[in-house]
Each structure stands twice: as structure tokens, then as C-alpha cells.
Amino acid sequence: MTKGSDSPLKTVSYKANPYTFYAQLREEAPAQKTMLPNGVEVYLVTRYQDVQAGLKDARLVKDIHNARQPGILEKLGIDLGISNMLRADPPEHTRLRSLANEAFKPVYINQMRGHIQDIANQLLDAVQAAGRMDLIADFAFPLPITVISEMIGVPAGDHQKFREWSSDLIASGALSSENFHLGPGLLQLGNYVRQLIADHRRHPREDLVSQLIAAEQDGDRLSDRELLSTVILLLIAGHETTVNLIGNGMLALLQAPDQLAQLQNNPTLIKPAVEEILRFVNPVQIVNRYASEDIEIAGQKIPRGSHLQLVLAAANHDPAYVPDPDKLNITHGEARHVAFSQGIHYCLGAPLARLEGEIAFATLLRRLPGIHLAVAPEQVEWRPAFELRGLKALPVAF
């Protein structure tokens, strides 16, 4: 077993290119017991067929209570780790998802296309004359955070706070472990959202928080703590994935000039291009499960209560799933990838992320046809979390 202090997951080379490590695991130990940098023991599952099956296996649960006694999950006073879709199993997951689902239906999301396009244009208007920008700070972050904040009812002046709180949440280990670090940023986030919900109770408006407060199914409503954790989850998930999709995706395109030129010359390829970019760059690298009974995966016996990480990024680069997986090919894009998971936990926000990705890439390539990296590819820095893979900054010129 790889010890936490020796784990490749902590290295700079892993951040820059995790796919070499994933390929080794797929070949040598596709269900490998290891230790994360934070000391949590997990089984890393890396083959496409095993990950896909695991995402749909009812024996692999989200809620640790359904597999073993929890560690210190409840130490986060705002209950972020419980009462939300990210950690729930049926029937609780079914109930929570059905109450939150209405606002994320594709028919509703598609009505936002014009407004999202306006936001993208305004962001580029602000930097185009300069001839250069940090694509993350100036475009990839403000686009989705503006969209989800408007949907939820967060004032524009508070967007940067949410960026900082989101980074704190990811760094805390809350996405990958029941034993995570409670920092001041998470308490501030919880207090802010509590006040936001209270204000929406007093003054309902036409946004997602008010819809969640009013949501009812067969006389059932979300409790206060469920509202709190659901709003936090939607705020974080509603922008983090898309920030990384846009940033990682543009880096991939800029490093594959033939694919960049093909998309510029044929904008009708934007939909398959976004699917291929999702497969190739994997904004969400892993998802967590717990074994509710003894199981076997890829010949590895996994006892009840074990923590598993289904490595979506490894599955999407499995040559058994797609030929030449480490080469970007925008004409081959299709939706069998697992970038948004599969099964009952398929990403609720996938239609919004896809739409934002389509608009972002199309607008960047149309308005900035000469866009290129302003630093050497090996100089770009990656954020420390391995659950979500994203860039700290991406300097470009045009």
C-alpha cells in the first residue's frame, strides 16, 4: 500500500499530469488500496468498466452511515457533510434531488443561453483592448459564478467571497473524507447562507433559493438544515466544475493547435468538442463511495465499510473505452464518458455546465482568434486539491 507521505498524489508531477499514474494503476492494480495525502485509506478504482459499474452499484453508497459508523462527520456545525445530495442514498437522495431538480431541467437552462452569452461578451469587452488576460480570473471564474449567483440570489459584490470559501471547502477535504478540517472560511460560508435563506423567507423573489424554500412534493419540504446544505452544494458545484472545464479545456486546446483550428474553422463542432473536452480534462477527477457489504472489484476483495474512490479521470482515459485516449479529438466527442458520473448521482448541473462550456469556448475562439499561451505550458500552476483538477491561473495573449 502506498503510504500518505510517499503518495504520488502529493507531487507536482501528479498535478501536472495525473494520467500517467492512472494508466499505471489501470494496468497493474485497477482496484488499488492506498492512502490519500490526508491519511485516509481508500481503494482507487481506475478501469472504465469498473468505474461505470461502480457508479450504478447500489452496494456502493454515498452516506457513510449506510456502510459503517462515521468518523467525525458531524464536526462541521453547518451539517455540510449530511443532508445534501452529494452524500445521500435513496430514499433520501431521491427526495432531495426531486425537490431541487426543477430549476436545472434542460428546458429551463436553455432559456438562459442569451443571458450567459451577454455575460461572456461583457467579460471579454473588459480585457480585449489589453491583448492579454488571466483566463481563470478574468473569464473562467466570473462567468459561472455570475450565473449561479444570479440563479441563487447572491449579490455581485459577494462573488469573490464565494471563490475564497469554495477554495477553503475543497482544501478542507470535505469532498473526499469524513474526517475533514473545519476552517473559518467554512463557518463564514455557513453563516452567510443562513442569512441569505432567512432574507429570502422574509422577502421571496424569483430565484433558486426562493424556489427551494417553496418546493413541495406530496406535502414534503426541505428542512432548514437541508436548505442550508443544498444551497451551499449548488453554489460550490454550480461554478467549480465549469471554472475547471473552461480553464483546463482552453489549455488543452492551446496545446493541440490542430484541434483548436478545426473548432475555429467549424463552429458546428462545439457540442461534440465540449463532450470530448469533458472526457479529456476531467474537471471532477474522482467521486467517493463506501462499500455497504463485502464486494470484489477487478479481483480485489474489498470489505464492508471500505472507502472507495471511483477515478472518473482514469476511466475516461482508459484505452478499453476510447482509442488513443491521451490525444484530444473533438470530432469523437460523445456522452458515454463519466465526467458527470452516471446512474442516480448523475450531475444535476450537467446541462448548465455544458451550456456554459459551449458558450465559453465558442466566444473565446470567435472573438480572440489569435489566442495563445503567454507562458510555457510547464509553467502553469495547478490548485492543490486532487478531487477537482483546476488551474490557479492561465495567462494568455491575443
Keywords:
10 strands; 398 residues; 9% strand; 16 helices; Cytochrome p450; alpha+beta
Textual characterization of the structure:
44% of the residues are buried. The protein has helices at residues 12-16, 19-28, 48-55, 92-100, 106-110, 113-125, 135-140, 142-152, 159-172, 184-202, 208-214, 224-254, 257-265, 270-281, 312-316, 350-367; strands at 31-35, 41-45, 60-61, 132-134, 286-291, 295-297, 300-302, 307-311, 372-373, 395-397. It starts with 11 loop residues before the first helix and ends with a strand. Strands 1-2-8-5-3 form a five-stranded mixed β-sheet, with helices on both faces. It has a three-stranded antiparallel β-sheet with strand order 4-10-9. A two-stranded antiparallel sheet has the order 6-7. It contains 16 helices and ten strands. The protein has one domain (4-397): Cytochrome p450. The model is unreliable at 70-82 (pLDDT under 50).
CATH class (first level) name:
Mainly Alpha
Report the biggest beta sheet as strand number plus sense, adding barrel if it closes: 5 strands, mixed
CATH-derived topology: Cytochrome p450
User: Helical content, roughly?
Assistant: 40-55%
User: What's the β-strand tally?
Assistant: 10
How much is the radius of gyration in Å? 20 Å
| Strand order in the sheet with the most strands | 1-2-8-5-3
List the helices and strands in order: HHEEHEHHHEHHHHHHHHEEEEHHEE
Residues in β-strands, percent: 5-15%
